[in-house]
Amino acid sequence: MEEILLFIKRMGYKKVGVATCVGLLHEANLFAKVAKAKGIDVYGVACKVGSQDKSLIGIPEEIKHNPGCHEAFCNPILQAELLNREGTEFNIIIGLCVGHDTLFIRHSKAPVTYLIVKDRVLGHNPAAGLYLTGSFYKRLLGPDLPKSKLEE
Predict the structure, then answer these.
(1) How far apart are CA 140 and CA 117, in angstroms?
(2) pLDDT at 148 over 70
(3) Most buried of 19, 60, 122, 146 (most Cβ within 10 A)?
(4) 141 against 31, higher pLDDT
């Protein structure tokens, strides 16, 4: 975080965007609080922006987390478009899903970096998986990627 803030200051950026997962709103708010204390204007947008139900894109009710309830899908393209409209000069990703981050980066007019990379299994610390390839995650070194708990 400190390096990102120093980079923002050195580049002379005044308007910084934060594209966050709703699961990391607390962390995004903490970052915004620190950035604002450093005189940086922060504009945030959460992944569920637009609040369109998953059924609109063909997700059947039975595979929703809460069948029969409104369940918004993520909208990384709208996140980027809103920050573009705001005129942010630099954007920061906090925990967007793999693929969603790629779409956000593609549609952002401003340069983008990560503060937090999503990793639900390892507490948003994907480097831990690399460190554990000599022990717990040795199975990942095989030719086939084993099924993740997230896929079950």
Answers:
(1) 19
(2) no
(3) 19
(4) 31
